[in-house]
Amino acid sequence: MKFFKICILISLLVTPYLIYATPSLTILSYSYFSDEDADSRAGEQYYNFFQPILSTYFDTVLTRTNHARLIKRLSTNEAVCSFNLIKTKARNKQLVFSQIPTYMHQQRKLFGFKNTLKDLPAKVSISKLLNNKYTFAIVSSTSYQQLDAIFSDYRTQVAKITGANSFAQLSQLLIHKRVDMIIDYENTMKMNLTDTQFSQLESRDISEYPEFINGYFACSKTSEGKKAIALIDNYMKTPAAYDFLKQTHHNSTSPEVAERMMAIYKTTFNIAQHK
Asked: Which SUPFAM superfamilies match (predicted)?
């Protein structure tokens, strides 16, 4: 009987803490560049932007991981979110996404050695290049959007990279001439190669791609994930969000391109500006 009373007392003491315990949420930042400092800065920049609104409901922590593990963790019942994630049909079934993009990516380009690309036009078709027997390398954990189905039809000509530092491996496969061409973002190529290595390459626009592609805040399909998305959706409509997006896009691309991106944010997503 005495033991039973002690158990009740402990239960009464602990219950309030259980009721009012702040739920935890992990924000995943992916390892994209070979330069870990660049990855860390990019992750912290976005985390510092989202953390004030998320902290009204969650205890948040920032964790860096590789792209494949990030996608895998988002697909579980773990309370995790990430940012700037491209939406695909498969991911849309597994994750929950924000209504407004947290970043507008410039499209990836085709990269190859100057001698390889010298006779190609300014805009090329990946389907035609594969049909002409060129070889490619891709990162298996990411989506190439309109090109995914095309790559699946030419598996013997496409090397898939998995594991840690996969984006750094991608550029190294090209620079060591293991494949003819790769598809990547220009800023990523510059981060993962030396100036001398990058100067040996040229790029081409890809005809299968639109000019920009949206990256969204995305969470696991958990109660925490859905709550986080609701908080972010409201926050992304504020003038503070507009100011952050404007600064971020102007820092990552040319003023002309950044203004075209911000025009889309204003007209398509109706983000509020300061009056």
From this structure: Periplasmic binding protein-like II
Sequence-distant (≥ 6) Cβ neighbours of residue 66 within 8 angstroms: 30, 31, 141, 163, 164, 165, 166
Q: Is residue 17 part of a domain?
A: no
Mind giving me the DSSP string for 120-168? S-SEE-HHHHHHTT--EEEETTS--GGGHHHHHTTGGGEEEE-STTHHH
Do residues 97 and 143 share a domain?
no
The model's pTM: 0.73
- Helices 255-269 and 239-252: crossing angle in degrees, nearest 10, is 150
Q: How do residues 81-137 score in pLDDT, each as one tens digit? A: 999 999 988 899 999 999 999 999 888 999 999 999 999 999 999 999 999 999 999
Q: Domain boundary at 152, 181, 206, which? A: 206
β-bridge partners, 96? 219
